[in-house]
């Protein structure tokens, strides 16, 4: 019976260790924000997203219905490594992938 107990403990240990996520999962953020149109000389005529704490982000894609200067939204996004958008006199903006967006 002791051998069966050890086998069960080992099997359960293997089962739970396979459930541990050891990869580098992306960090997902949810924030309130405002859509802004950056026009020259500050920008390139592109839409960016300004978070409530004044961080500017460059969405890799933004549906036309949300391309409204001053539109307040809630977004869920993931930072995209290696993508930034130099825009006019504004320093490079980090690129983001929008996972969800809704009007506030």
Task: Give an overview in words.
The protein has one helix spanning 2-17, and strands at residues 28-38, 46-51, 56-59, 72-87, 90-103. It has 104 residues and is of the alpha+beta class. The longest helix is centred in the first third of the chain and has 16 residues, at 2-17. The protein has a single domain (28-103), classed as OB fold (Dihydrolipoamide Acetyltransferase, E2P), CATH 2.40.50. It is built from 1 helix and 5 strands; from the N terminus they run H-E-E-E-E-E.
What order do the SSEs take from the amino end to the carboxyl end, as H and E?
A: HEEEEE
Poorly predicted tracts of residues: 15-23
What count of domains describes the coordinates? 1
Structural class: alpha+beta
Amount of helix: 10-25%
């Amino acid at each position: 019976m002791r051998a069966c107990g050890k086998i069960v403990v080992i099997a359960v240990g293997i089962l739970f260790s396979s459930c541990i996520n050891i990869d580098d999962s992306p960090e997902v953020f949810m924030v309130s924000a405002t859509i802004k149109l950056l026009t020259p000389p500050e920008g390139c005529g592109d839409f960016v997203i300004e978070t409530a704490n004044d961080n500017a982000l460059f969405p890799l894609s933004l549906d036309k219905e949300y391309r409204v200067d001053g539109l307040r939204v809630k977004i869920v996004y993931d930072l995209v490594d290696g993508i930034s958008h130099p825009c006019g006199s504004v320093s490079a903006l980090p690129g983001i992938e929008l996972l969800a967006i809704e009007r506030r």
